Amino acid sequence: MKQIQGSYITGYVTVLVEGNMPELFFQDCINNGITVWEIKREAPNACSGNVKLKDIGKIKSLRRGKNYKVSFTRKKGYPFILSRFFRRKEIVIGMALSILLIFFLSNIIWKVEITGVPKDIEEKIDKQLRDYGVHPGAWSFTLDKPGEIQRNLTEDVPELLWVGVHKKGTTFFLEGVEKTIVEEGEVEGPRDLVASKKGVIKNMYVSKGLPKVEINDYVEPGDVLVSGTLNEVEEQGEDEEEINEKEKRILVASEGEIIANTWYETNVTIPLQANYELLTGKHEKKYFIGFGDFHLPIWGFGSPEYEDIHREDTKNSLYFFKWKLPISFIETTLSEKTYNKIERTKEQAIQAGIEQAKQELQLQLGPDAVITSEKVLHESEESGKVKLSLYLTVEEDIAKAQPINQGD
Amino acid sequence: MKKMHQRIRPWLIKKFALPSDVILELPRITIIGQLHVYIENHKGLAVFTDNELKLKTTKGYIQIKGSSFVLKMMLPEEILLEGKISDVKFISN
Protein backbone atom coordinates (compact mmCIF):
# COMPACT_ATOMS: atom_id res chain seq x y z
CA MET A 1 0.00 0.00 0.00
CA LYS A 2 2.98 2.28 0.31
CA GLN A 3 2.74 3.06 -3.38
CA ILE A 4 -0.35 5.16 -2.81
CA GLN A 5 0.70 6.65 0.49
CA GLY A 6 1.08 10.40 0.50
CA SER A 7 -0.86 10.72 -2.71
CA TYR A 8 -3.11 13.25 -1.01
CA ILE A 9 -0.14 15.54 -0.54
CA THR A 10 1.14 15.21 -4.09
CA GLY A 11 -2.39 15.18 -5.50
CA TYR A 12 -4.35 12.60 -7.41
CA VAL A 13 -6.98 12.49 -10.10
CA THR A 14 -9.93 10.21 -10.71
CA VAL A 15 -9.93 9.03 -14.31
CA LEU A 16 -13.02 7.82 -16.07
CA VAL A 17 -12.34 5.49 -18.97
CA GLU A 18 -15.09 4.76 -21.42
CA GLY A 19 -14.97 2.22 -24.23
CA ASN A 20 -14.91 -1.51 -24.84
CA MET A 21 -13.26 -3.41 -21.96
CA PRO A 22 -12.12 -0.33 -20.07
CA GLU A 23 -10.30 -2.41 -17.43
CA LEU A 24 -7.71 -3.29 -20.03
CA PHE A 25 -6.72 0.35 -20.26
CA PHE A 26 -5.81 0.21 -16.60
CA GLN A 27 -3.84 -2.96 -17.22
CA ASP A 28 -1.93 -1.01 -19.82
CA CYS A 29 -1.30 1.73 -17.30
CA ILE A 30 0.12 -0.73 -14.82
CA ASN A 31 2.37 -2.29 -17.43
CA ASN A 32 3.73 1.22 -18.01
CA GLY A 33 4.50 1.75 -14.36
CA ILE A 34 1.52 3.89 -13.41
CA THR A 35 -0.02 2.98 -10.06
CA VAL A 36 -3.80 2.83 -10.15
CA TRP A 37 -6.10 2.33 -7.22
CA GLU A 38 -9.79 2.35 -6.34
CA ILE A 39 -10.78 0.93 -9.71
CA LYS A 40 -14.56 0.69 -10.00
CA ARG A 41 -16.90 -0.41 -12.67
CA GLU A 42 -19.13 2.59 -13.17
CA ALA A 43 -21.12 1.25 -16.15
CA PRO A 44 -20.88 -1.74 -18.48
CA ASN A 45 -18.48 0.23 -20.67
CA ALA A 46 -16.95 2.61 -18.17
CA CYS A 47 -14.38 2.25 -15.41
CA SER A 48 -12.97 4.79 -13.02
CA GLY A 49 -9.73 4.73 -11.07
CA ASN A 50 -7.36 7.01 -9.23
CA VAL A 51 -3.95 7.95 -10.58
CA LYS A 52 -1.28 10.24 -9.24
CA LEU A 53 -1.05 13.77 -10.51
CA LYS A 54 2.45 13.22 -11.83
CA ASP A 55 1.30 10.25 -13.96
CA ILE A 56 -1.26 12.26 -15.92
CA GLY A 57 1.18 13.02 -18.69
CA LYS A 58 1.85 9.33 -19.17
CA ILE A 59 -1.87 8.58 -19.26
CA LYS A 60 -2.42 11.17 -21.95
CA SER A 61 0.28 9.63 -24.09
CA LEU A 62 -1.14 6.15 -23.50
CA ARG A 63 -4.56 7.28 -24.61
CA ARG A 64 -3.23 8.14 -28.03
CA GLY A 65 -3.96 5.52 -30.65
CA LYS A 66 -6.49 3.70 -28.49
CA ASN A 67 -10.18 3.52 -28.68
CA TYR A 68 -10.92 4.82 -25.23
CA LYS A 69 -12.40 8.03 -24.06
CA VAL A 70 -10.49 9.20 -21.03
CA SER A 71 -11.78 12.02 -18.85
CA PHE A 72 -10.70 13.36 -15.48
CA THR A 73 -13.63 13.57 -13.15
CA ARG A 74 -12.28 14.55 -9.73
CA LYS A 75 -9.15 16.25 -8.54
CA LYS A 76 -8.00 15.77 -4.99
CA GLY A 77 -5.04 16.67 -2.87
CA TYR A 78 -3.09 19.68 -1.72
CA PRO A 79 -1.98 20.98 -5.11
CA PHE A 80 -5.61 21.45 -6.08
CA ILE A 81 -6.57 22.92 -2.72
CA LEU A 82 -3.72 25.38 -3.06
CA SER A 83 -4.61 26.37 -6.58
CA ARG A 84 -8.22 26.82 -5.52
CA PHE A 85 -7.02 28.94 -2.64
CA PHE A 86 -4.83 31.10 -4.82
CA ARG A 87 -7.69 31.65 -7.19
CA ARG A 88 -9.39 33.66 -4.44
CA LYS A 89 -7.52 36.91 -4.70
CA GLU A 90 -9.10 38.61 -1.69
CA ILE A 91 -7.98 35.92 0.73
CA VAL A 92 -4.47 35.85 -0.69
CA ILE A 93 -4.17 39.62 -0.49
CA GLY A 94 -5.62 39.66 3.00
CA MET A 95 -3.24 36.97 4.12
CA ALA A 96 -0.24 38.72 2.63
CA LEU A 97 -1.27 41.98 4.27
CA SER A 98 -1.69 40.35 7.66
CA ILE A 99 1.71 38.67 7.43
CA LEU A 100 3.20 41.99 6.40
CA LEU A 101 1.48 43.70 9.32
CA ILE A 102 2.77 41.14 11.80
CA PHE A 103 6.19 41.49 10.24
CA PHE A 104 6.14 45.27 10.64
CA LEU A 105 4.81 45.11 14.15
CA SER A 106 7.48 42.59 15.08
CA ASN A 107 10.12 45.09 14.07
CA ILE A 108 8.81 47.99 16.05
CA ILE A 109 9.90 48.81 19.57
CA TRP A 110 6.85 48.48 21.73
CA LYS A 111 8.21 49.11 25.13
CA VAL A 112 11.26 50.50 26.84
CA GLU A 113 11.59 49.24 30.35
CA ILE A 114 14.01 50.82 32.76
CA THR A 115 14.58 49.18 36.10
CA GLY A 116 16.89 49.56 39.04
CA VAL A 117 17.21 53.36 39.09
CA PRO A 118 15.23 56.12 40.81
CA LYS A 119 12.55 58.03 38.93
CA ASP A 120 14.61 61.10 38.10
CA ILE A 121 17.43 59.14 36.56
CA GLU A 122 14.91 56.99 34.80
CA GLU A 123 13.55 60.10 33.14
CA LYS A 124 17.01 61.22 32.24
CA ILE A 125 17.78 57.88 30.65
CA ASP A 126 14.48 57.97 28.83
CA LYS A 127 15.28 61.38 27.41
CA GLN A 128 18.74 60.24 26.36
CA LEU A 129 17.26 57.16 24.74
CA ARG A 130 14.84 59.32 22.79
CA ASP A 131 17.85 61.18 21.47
CA TYR A 132 19.29 57.89 20.24
CA GLY A 133 15.95 57.07 18.67
CA VAL A 134 14.99 54.36 21.14
CA HIS A 135 11.36 54.95 21.98
CA PRO A 136 8.14 53.02 21.58
CA GLY A 137 7.19 53.08 17.94
CA ALA A 138 10.69 53.21 16.51
CA TRP A 139 11.92 50.77 13.91
CA SER A 140 14.17 48.35 15.68
CA PHE A 141 16.42 47.79 12.68
CA THR A 142 17.47 51.41 12.45
CA LEU A 143 18.80 51.40 16.00
CA ASP A 144 22.28 50.78 17.21
CA LYS A 145 23.31 47.51 18.78
CA PRO A 146 22.40 47.17 22.47
CA GLY A 147 26.07 47.12 23.33
CA GLU A 148 26.61 50.45 21.65
CA ILE A 149 23.59 52.02 23.35
CA GLN A 150 24.91 50.69 26.61
CA ARG A 151 28.25 52.36 26.08
CA ASN A 152 26.79 55.68 24.92
CA LEU A 153 24.39 55.71 27.82
CA THR A 154 27.04 55.21 30.46
CA GLU A 155 28.99 58.03 28.83
CA ASP A 156 26.13 60.47 28.49
CA VAL A 157 24.39 59.90 31.80
CA PRO A 158 27.07 60.50 34.41
CA GLU A 159 24.86 59.29 37.26
CA LEU A 160 24.97 55.81 35.87
CA LEU A 161 27.65 53.45 37.04
CA TRP A 162 26.58 50.71 34.75
CA VAL A 163 23.64 50.03 32.51
CA GLY A 164 22.68 46.71 30.99
CA VAL A 165 20.78 46.99 27.74
CA HIS A 166 19.22 44.07 26.06
CA LYS A 167 16.54 43.66 23.52
CA LYS A 168 14.01 40.93 23.91
CA GLY A 169 11.62 40.76 20.99
CA THR A 170 9.95 44.13 20.76
CA THR A 171 10.98 45.34 24.20
CA PHE A 172 14.14 47.08 25.32
CA PHE A 173 15.11 46.17 28.84
CA LEU A 174 17.44 48.51 30.64
CA GLU A 175 18.85 47.72 33.99
CA GLY A 176 20.73 50.55 35.57
CA VAL A 177 22.98 50.82 38.56
CA GLU A 178 23.21 54.29 40.05
CA LYS A 179 26.54 55.71 40.84
CA THR A 180 26.75 56.58 44.51
CA ILE A 181 29.25 59.36 44.58
CA VAL A 182 31.53 58.52 47.43
CA GLU A 183 33.35 61.40 49.07
CA GLU A 184 37.01 61.03 48.58
CA GLY A 185 38.47 59.10 51.41
CA GLU A 186 40.04 62.06 53.16
CA VAL A 187 41.75 61.20 56.32
CA GLU A 188 39.79 62.82 59.06
CA GLY A 189 41.19 63.86 62.32
CA PRO A 190 44.76 64.63 63.07
CA ARG A 191 47.18 63.84 60.34
CA ASP A 192 50.61 64.48 58.98
CA LEU A 193 51.58 65.16 55.42
CA VAL A 194 54.22 62.81 54.13
CA ALA A 195 56.05 62.63 50.83
CA SER A 196 54.66 60.26 48.25
CA LYS A 197 57.67 60.52 45.95
CA LYS A 198 61.24 61.42 46.22
CA GLY A 199 62.11 64.91 45.17
CA VAL A 200 63.54 68.26 46.01
CA ILE A 201 61.19 70.72 47.73
CA LYS A 202 60.60 73.76 45.60
CA ASN A 203 57.69 75.54 47.22
CA MET A 204 55.68 75.06 50.36
CA TYR A 205 52.26 76.40 51.21
CA VAL A 206 51.34 75.13 54.63
CA SER A 207 48.00 76.29 55.93
CA LYS A 208 47.86 74.06 58.98
CA GLY A 209 50.51 72.10 60.75
CA LEU A 210 54.14 72.37 61.49
CA PRO A 211 56.48 72.24 58.49
CA LYS A 212 59.29 69.76 58.99
CA VAL A 213 61.23 70.38 55.82
CA GLU A 214 62.57 73.38 54.07
CA ILE A 215 62.84 74.49 50.51
CA ASN A 216 65.61 72.69 48.61
CA ASP A 217 65.47 69.71 51.00
CA TYR A 218 65.68 66.33 49.42
CA VAL A 219 62.90 64.00 50.59
CA GLU A 220 62.34 60.28 50.22
CA PRO A 221 58.88 58.70 50.04
CA GLY A 222 57.42 58.47 53.56
CA ASP A 223 59.31 61.41 54.99
CA VAL A 224 57.14 63.69 57.13
CA LEU A 225 56.72 67.02 55.40
CA VAL A 226 54.20 68.72 57.66
CA SER A 227 53.52 67.44 61.12
CA GLY A 228 50.11 67.56 62.72
CA THR A 229 51.53 67.52 66.22
CA LEU A 230 52.01 71.14 67.12
CA ASN A 231 53.87 71.26 70.43
CA GLU A 232 55.94 68.18 69.91
CA VAL A 233 58.38 67.49 72.63
CA GLU A 234 61.55 65.57 72.43
CA GLU A 235 60.89 62.14 73.75
CA GLN A 236 63.17 61.92 76.67
CA GLY A 237 62.93 61.98 80.38
CA GLU A 238 60.95 59.71 82.61
CA ASP A 239 57.95 57.71 81.58
CA GLU A 240 55.47 59.55 83.76
CA GLU A 241 56.55 62.84 82.39
CA GLU A 242 56.12 61.57 78.87
CA ILE A 243 52.55 60.62 79.52
CA ASN A 244 51.86 64.08 80.78
CA GLU A 245 53.47 65.57 77.77
CA LYS A 246 51.42 63.40 75.48
CA GLU A 247 48.24 64.67 77.03
CA LYS A 248 49.31 68.22 76.44
CA ARG A 249 49.98 67.61 72.78
CA ILE A 250 47.77 69.43 70.34
CA LEU A 251 46.96 67.44 67.27
CA VAL A 252 45.64 69.06 64.12
CA ALA A 253 44.78 67.94 60.63
CA SER A 254 47.62 69.46 58.73
CA GLU A 255 46.90 70.92 55.33
CA GLY A 256 49.14 72.23 52.70
CA GLU A 257 50.68 71.90 49.30
CA ILE A 258 54.26 70.83 48.93
CA ILE A 259 55.54 71.39 45.43
CA ALA A 260 58.66 69.45 44.70
CA ASN A 261 60.89 68.81 41.78
CA THR A 262 60.63 65.19 40.84
CA TRP A 263 62.21 63.39 37.97
CA TYR A 264 61.30 60.56 35.71
CA GLU A 265 63.12 58.45 33.21
CA THR A 266 61.20 57.17 30.22
CA ASN A 267 61.99 55.35 27.03
CA VAL A 268 60.21 56.11 23.77
CA THR A 269 60.54 54.66 20.31
CA ILE A 270 59.67 56.81 17.30
CA PRO A 271 59.53 55.46 13.76
CA LEU A 272 61.09 57.61 11.08
CA GLN A 273 58.31 56.71 8.67
CA ALA A 274 54.64 56.49 9.50
CA ASN A 275 51.49 55.77 7.56
CA TYR A 276 48.12 56.81 8.70
CA GLU A 277 44.62 57.05 7.31
CA LEU A 278 42.54 60.15 7.58
CA LEU A 279 38.83 60.55 6.89
CA THR A 280 38.09 63.70 4.93
CA GLY A 281 34.58 64.03 6.31
CA LYS A 282 32.79 63.39 3.05
CA HIS A 283 30.53 60.41 3.32
CA GLU A 284 27.56 58.76 1.70
CA LYS A 285 25.02 56.40 3.13
CA LYS A 286 23.56 53.36 1.47
CA TYR A 287 20.84 51.03 2.56
CA PHE A 288 20.53 47.39 1.69
CA ILE A 289 18.28 44.50 2.45
CA GLY A 290 20.40 41.44 2.91
CA PHE A 291 19.35 37.87 2.28
CA GLY A 292 22.24 35.87 3.61
CA ASP A 293 25.21 37.06 1.60
CA PHE A 294 23.17 38.75 -1.07
CA HIS A 295 22.61 42.46 -0.60
CA LEU A 296 19.73 44.14 -2.36
CA PRO A 297 20.23 47.90 -2.53
CA ILE A 298 17.14 49.89 -1.63
CA TRP A 299 18.53 53.38 -1.30
CA GLY A 300 21.72 55.01 -2.42
CA PHE A 301 22.81 53.74 -5.82
CA GLY A 302 26.05 54.14 -7.59
CA SER A 303 29.33 54.45 -5.82
CA PRO A 304 30.80 57.77 -4.75
CA GLU A 305 33.82 59.01 -6.63
CA TYR A 306 36.23 58.69 -3.78
CA GLU A 307 39.66 57.38 -4.36
CA ASP A 308 39.89 55.46 -1.13
CA ILE A 309 36.83 54.37 0.73
CA HIS A 310 36.38 53.48 4.33
CA ARG A 311 33.39 51.22 4.65
CA GLU A 312 31.32 50.72 7.72
CA ASP A 313 28.40 48.32 7.84
CA THR A 314 25.74 48.13 10.48
CA LYS A 315 23.58 45.10 10.20
CA ASN A 316 20.23 44.72 11.93
CA SER A 317 18.24 41.55 11.67
CA LEU A 318 14.53 41.55 11.05
CA TYR A 319 12.14 39.57 13.16
CA PHE A 320 8.90 37.78 12.66
CA PHE A 321 7.37 37.45 16.11
CA LYS A 322 10.36 36.28 18.08
CA TRP A 323 12.09 34.49 15.24
CA LYS A 324 15.05 36.03 13.56
CA LEU A 325 14.58 36.08 9.84
CA PRO A 326 17.46 35.45 7.44
CA ILE A 327 16.74 38.95 6.16
CA SER A 328 18.62 41.91 7.53
CA PHE A 329 18.61 45.65 7.10
CA ILE A 330 22.06 46.98 6.36
CA GLU A 331 23.22 50.55 6.56
CA THR A 332 26.55 51.20 4.92
CA THR A 333 28.49 54.38 5.36
CA LEU A 334 31.11 55.06 2.75
CA SER A 335 33.57 57.69 3.86
CA GLU A 336 36.34 59.16 1.85
CA LYS A 337 39.74 58.61 3.30
CA THR A 338 43.22 59.63 2.41
CA TYR A 339 46.39 57.80 3.06
CA ASN A 340 49.05 59.96 4.54
CA LYS A 341 52.66 59.18 4.88
CA ILE A 342 55.12 61.10 6.93
CA GLU A 343 58.82 60.87 6.85
CA ARG A 344 60.82 62.47 9.57
CA THR A 345 64.39 63.35 9.96
CA LYS A 346 66.13 62.24 13.05
CA GLU A 347 65.75 65.69 14.57
CA GLN A 348 62.03 65.75 13.98
CA ALA A 349 61.71 62.24 15.33
CA ILE A 350 63.45 63.21 18.53
CA GLN A 351 61.17 66.23 18.88
CA ALA A 352 58.10 64.04 18.32
CA GLY A 353 59.43 61.54 20.83
CA ILE A 354 59.88 64.17 23.49
CA GLU A 355 56.38 65.50 22.87
CA GLN A 356 54.97 62.02 23.11
CA ALA A 357 56.81 61.25 26.32
CA LYS A 358 55.63 64.53 27.85
CA GLN A 359 52.04 63.83 26.92
CA GLU A 360 52.19 60.36 28.36
CA LEU A 361 53.67 61.59 31.59
CA GLN A 362 51.19 64.44 31.90
CA LEU A 363 48.38 61.93 31.45
CA GLN A 364 49.88 59.78 34.15
CA LEU A 365 50.42 62.59 36.66
CA GLY A 366 47.32 64.65 36.12
CA PRO A 367 46.78 68.21 35.06
CA ASP A 368 48.34 69.82 38.14
CA ALA A 369 51.83 68.64 37.39
CA VAL A 370 54.07 70.87 35.30
CA ILE A 371 56.85 69.41 33.24
CA THR A 372 59.68 71.86 33.54
CA SER A 373 62.52 70.40 31.57
CA GLU A 374 63.51 67.41 29.57
CA LYS A 375 66.83 66.00 28.62
CA VAL A 376 67.80 63.32 26.16
CA LEU A 377 70.05 60.92 27.97
CA HIS A 378 70.62 58.54 25.18
CA GLU A 379 69.54 58.13 21.60
CA SER A 380 70.06 55.38 19.09
CA GLU A 381 68.80 54.63 15.60
CA GLU A 382 67.77 51.14 14.73
CA SER A 383 65.92 49.70 11.70
CA GLY A 384 64.07 52.90 10.87
CA LYS A 385 63.28 53.76 14.45
CA VAL A 386 64.79 56.19 16.91
CA LYS A 387 65.04 55.02 20.47
CA LEU A 388 65.20 57.71 23.10
CA SER A 389 65.95 57.59 26.74
CA LEU A 390 64.55 60.75 28.34
CA TYR A 391 64.96 62.44 31.63
CA LEU A 392 62.03 64.65 32.62
CA THR A 393 61.81 67.06 35.50
CA VAL A 394 58.37 67.76 36.90
CA GLU A 395 57.00 70.13 39.48
CA GLU A 396 54.18 68.51 41.37
CA ASP A 397 52.46 68.23 44.70
CA ILE A 398 53.95 65.31 46.55
CA ALA A 399 52.07 65.70 49.81
CA LYS A 400 50.04 62.74 51.01
CA ALA A 401 47.91 62.66 54.14
CA GLN A 402 48.77 60.16 56.83
CA PRO A 403 46.75 59.88 60.03
CA ILE A 404 48.58 60.27 63.30
CA ASN A 405 48.35 57.18 65.34
CA GLN A 406 47.11 58.31 68.72
CA GLY A 407 47.88 55.04 70.33
CA ASP A 408 44.40 54.20 71.49
CA MET B 1 15.69 -31.12 -21.00
CA LYS B 2 12.52 -29.23 -20.16
CA LYS B 3 11.01 -32.29 -18.53
CA MET B 4 14.04 -32.64 -16.35
CA HIS B 5 13.68 -28.99 -15.40
CA GLN B 6 10.06 -29.43 -14.47
CA ARG B 7 10.71 -32.53 -12.49
CA ILE B 8 13.46 -30.94 -10.51
CA ARG B 9 11.34 -28.08 -9.18
CA PRO B 10 8.80 -30.06 -7.14
CA TRP B 11 11.75 -32.04 -5.84
CA LEU B 12 13.44 -28.83 -4.74
CA ILE B 13 10.30 -27.67 -2.98
CA LYS B 14 9.95 -30.98 -1.19
CA LYS B 15 13.54 -31.37 -0.15
CA PHE B 16 14.46 -27.79 0.71
CA ALA B 17 11.04 -26.52 1.82
CA LEU B 18 11.21 -23.62 -0.59
CA PRO B 19 8.00 -21.57 -1.09
CA SER B 20 6.12 -23.16 -3.94
CA ASP B 21 4.67 -19.93 -5.33
CA VAL B 22 8.08 -18.56 -6.07
CA ILE B 23 9.58 -21.68 -7.60
CA LEU B 24 6.60 -22.69 -9.70
CA GLU B 25 5.45 -19.13 -10.51
CA LEU B 26 2.02 -19.83 -9.16
CA PRO B 27 -0.32 -17.12 -7.93
CA ARG B 28 -0.55 -16.62 -4.20
CA ILE B 29 -4.04 -15.75 -3.11
CA THR B 30 -4.81 -14.37 0.32
CA ILE B 31 -8.46 -14.10 1.23
CA ILE B 32 -9.61 -12.20 4.25
CA GLY B 33 -13.12 -13.31 5.08
CA GLN B 34 -15.42 -12.26 2.34
CA LEU B 35 -13.97 -8.79 2.27
CA HIS B 36 -10.60 -8.82 0.55
CA VAL B 37 -8.74 -10.94 -1.94
CA TYR B 38 -5.08 -10.29 -2.41
CA ILE B 39 -3.54 -11.93 -5.43
CA GLU B 40 0.16 -11.91 -6.16
CA ASN B 41 2.04 -13.33 -9.14
CA HIS B 42 -0.76 -12.97 -11.62
CA LYS B 43 -0.07 -12.28 -15.24
CA GLY B 44 -2.58 -9.57 -15.99
CA LEU B 45 -6.20 -8.58 -15.89
CA ALA B 46 -8.66 -10.22 -18.26
CA VAL B 47 -12.08 -9.12 -17.08
CA PHE B 48 -13.18 -6.74 -14.37
CA THR B 49 -16.77 -5.87 -13.72
CA ASP B 50 -18.84 -5.08 -10.65
CA ASN B 51 -19.26 -8.75 -9.82
CA GLU B 52 -16.47 -10.59 -11.57
CA LEU B 53 -12.68 -10.47 -11.69
CA LYS B 54 -10.72 -12.69 -14.05
CA LEU B 55 -6.95 -12.79 -13.91
CA LYS B 56 -4.49 -14.49 -16.19
CA THR B 57 -1.96 -16.81 -14.60
CA THR B 58 0.72 -19.14 -15.98
CA LYS B 59 -1.67 -22.05 -16.21
CA GLY B 60 -4.99 -20.47 -17.04
CA TYR B 61 -7.29 -18.06 -15.22
CA ILE B 62 -8.50 -17.29 -11.77
CA GLN B 63 -12.09 -16.23 -11.63
CA ILE B 64 -13.45 -14.47 -8.56
CA LYS B 65 -17.14 -13.78 -8.24
CA GLY B 66 -19.13 -11.68 -5.85
CA SER B 67 -20.66 -8.25 -5.77
CA SER B 68 -19.71 -4.55 -5.48
CA PHE B 69 -16.10 -5.12 -6.50
CA VAL B 70 -13.50 -2.37 -6.24
CA LEU B 71 -9.83 -2.79 -7.10
CA LYS B 72 -8.26 -1.14 -4.09
CA MET B 73 -4.79 -1.25 -5.58
CA MET B 74 -3.22 -2.46 -8.77
CA LEU B 75 0.47 -3.07 -9.24
CA PRO B 76 2.23 -4.97 -12.04
CA GLU B 77 1.90 -8.40 -10.36
CA GLU B 78 -0.34 -7.70 -7.41
CA ILE B 79 -3.98 -6.87 -7.06
CA LEU B 80 -6.10 -6.09 -4.03
CA LEU B 81 -9.79 -6.65 -4.51
CA GLU B 82 -12.45 -5.40 -2.17
CA GLY B 83 -16.11 -6.36 -2.17
CA LYS B 84 -18.36 -9.21 -1.15
CA ILE B 85 -16.70 -12.39 -2.40
CA SER B 86 -18.73 -15.46 -3.04
CA ASP B 87 -16.42 -17.81 -4.93
CA VAL B 88 -12.91 -18.29 -6.25
CA LYS B 89 -12.47 -20.57 -9.20
CA PHE B 90 -9.47 -21.87 -11.16
CA ILE B 91 -10.01 -22.27 -14.85
CA SER B 92 -7.24 -24.15 -16.61
CA ASN B 93 -6.46 -23.75 -20.28
Automatic annotation (TrEMBL), chain A:
Can you tell me where the transmembrane regions are?
Answer: 91-110
Keywords annotated in UniProt: Membrane, Transmembrane, Transmembrane helix
- Which Pfam families is this protein grouped with? YqfD
Q: What InterPro entries does the annotation carry?
A: YqfD
The molecule here is called: Sporulation protein YqfD
Q: Taxonomic classification, please?
A: Bacteria, Bacillati, Bacillota, Bacilli, Bacillales
